[in-house]
Amino acid sequence: MTAVIEGIDLAGLTAGPAQTWGAIRLVPLLRRDPVTDLRLHARLHDPDALSIVQTAPRTAYVSFIPHAFVATWTTDSTPAAAYGTQLRGSTDTEVPEGIRLVFRRRMARREDRQRLRFLPLHLAMEGYLALQFGGPPIAWQEWTRQAVTRGLSPRVEAGYTGAAIAGLDDALRVFEIHPDQCGMVLYVADALTAAFVVPHPDDYRALHPTLLQDFYGDLLFHYAHLYPAVPDFTVRLDDTAVTSVADLRAQLARVDAEWQGFHAVLADGLLAAGRLTVTPVHRMGRFTLARFLPAFDPDTDNHIGEVITDETGQLAYLKTFRLSAAQTRRGHLLSQLAAHDWNLDTTATALRTDRVGLIQRLDRAGFGHLLRPDIIDACRRRARESRGRAAR
Amino acid sequence: MFVNAAITSTAQREFRSTAAAQRLSLDFLHEYVLGNYRDLYAATLALDVNQLNAAMVVTNLLRTAAEASREQRAQEGRLIAARLRTLPPQRVYGVFRDLRRRGINNRRTRAIVRDWVTARPDPAFDAVKYRRSLSVAARHAHLPLPGEVGTVLFDWRRPKRYETPILEAWRRAHYDQRALYELPYTVAEGLAAQHGIDRARFLSGIAPRLTAGERLRLQGNAVRHKVDGVAMDLATAPLTRLASYVLSLPRPERLRRRDELTGALRAAARRAARRQAGTWGQVVAVLDDSYSAAGSGTKRRRPLAVALATHYLLEALAADFTGLWLHHRGDPLLVHPVGATGLGVRILDALERRPDRLVIVSDGWDNAPPGQAAEVLRIWRTRLDPDQHTSIVHLNPVYDADTFDVHRLAAGVATVGVRDAEDAAALVELARFATGSAGFDELRRHLADRVERFLDAQEAVS
Questions:
Q1: Predicted ipTM beyond 0.85
Q2: CATH numbers and ranges of domains, chain B
């Protein structure tokens, strides 16, 4: 069921010229033939919005709801957040799987507005982690009851909201959306931050502002402060080769091709290199929803995310999150544990350490609460004693 | 460069910069030019700089009068008086209030205020419509005010009635709802709110008293309240205002009223073109309808409105005209700001037609891909048209706060700021200074010539 692939295939999408604003570089992904039978769930669309791209009327199609989207899904008009990206049939009328939200403060004021928004970030991130790592499948005696039955549920990962990244709000505001744009690759100081692809330009238009409410790793927060500006990619045409208007046109075409190559180099970390572990989650019609995990190699970029592909493997929906170095290390531990069925001894052997060393690493990574208190306490005591002995 | 800024910038929020950044940048630029080139600074009053900048120039000149020589002061005095006559009264009163706030009160300032106020056609009307401003000006410059005007400003509690009709209407309007409709709209609006008059009833009552600008502004309001009397006379509206109004309508309505709106735009363009109509030969325009043409919340669709107005103006000016929008195809009336700014390819499309003139209307942020328009223009100039048969002008409606100028497209191409499309013909004339091909002395001569013409025209009127 789980498959390993080499990077993500952006076939069908072409990169447009980047627009830069300070340290932020935004590369639009254009789709000449939009996917029309997979669309954003109709309830997420503003009924008044005008369609830029003319398509046949929606008859039978599959709709999708991005992860952590807040909308009034329930019948009593309280807001709820979608839990995991979901696929729906056109005749499906039941309420999507979601988490009800209770806002104590002024959030209720916004409810009636037809506006897309994400959940508060820590909830969204936590949901992501719980989706990726379900906890020990075998009730080894070392793990607590809670870890076995509930997985990593109370685990919290920190991320930064897009609004906190310096300049991202202005960059997104002044970005000029192409008429046939279906996606966006976001770079902060030329580090690949996030990739976002939807099936149809109308969906992109509706979701573009949510990139600001999305969450990003701490690396990018710091990059945005450290690097004031990235250089523009300007090309110089070769004027000695031009003798007519047709020559000039040929030169422009050559520049376009060069740009595609330049962009492929930039997005290398996600698109070409890296071994991605893809787990299909749901299949509906000809579309498959899958979540992917990176190789958790601390030396390279690591992106987690969700994809929807059609039967030929063409990309319809993609959303990624770049992990920070600490998160990569934690992910590495968890993936090793999962690979060895959460057995401490075999995992320790695989990581070339012993049982105590592994428990210490788990504790330092913030996973101590998953182990039974007597085990973790004994380990901590032994570490304290060995430190004290070394100091004397 | 300063003239570009003074024509374009209104210190309001733009698509890419905030109001504060625009104001800061503009203030600095004024200080710089005033400090280094005082006579040129004063001479800009004779050009088509916008009202905000004219007011700033006047204030700054009066503020630093001590630094000017005797001859300079005489020339400045004539220029200021002439320019104030062309500004709308609310702007001039704004200048006076600013002078009082800054404590600028020399003999020349008082004389200028006095001359301007005495030249106003109806002081009683001013005392009602610009009540606070007139009282500020009168106090600041020690003005003698005729008859009841002084009373209504400074001793209004005492009289039981006034002889002047408009002052009497103003007094009665505080108690009597019917008297309200004899007052100017801005005054009546506040009193109507005090009386608790329904908005729809108020609008239909005040409709005959509205000025052209107010009428244009209230179109949407009137439709919302279903009032008929406010209907605007499309035949008299200025071209750029009209274009702004057209773009404020939803597309289905534009489609429904297509003949009426197109006719009005064409008529306004012909009026703006005047005698020059049809004299420009073959003209191709590249007009920017990218998303950035949507402007900002305070200047909605202003760049797009300028482009649309320029389209109709050039149609009237040229013998043979082609307008190329970046994305839009078909009837220009239905244009909509969307997409990226890919100027390079469109400019090449335009140049392929070998026109006599190429006019580019854009905010100059060429981003698909960045810098391509500059490359195309450079190669066109160096390789394909070295004799410059085609004259190329870039009109830019947006002031860029960071560079203290409008955003340029390419080094060899003249870029001039534009606020109202009506001035486009005069601006193209100024464009040869913007490339730097004309020298500083020539610029001085040109400005001196403009100042002479401006003063002669103004003093002939008064």
A1: no
A2: 2-208 (no CATH), 240-461 (3.40.50)
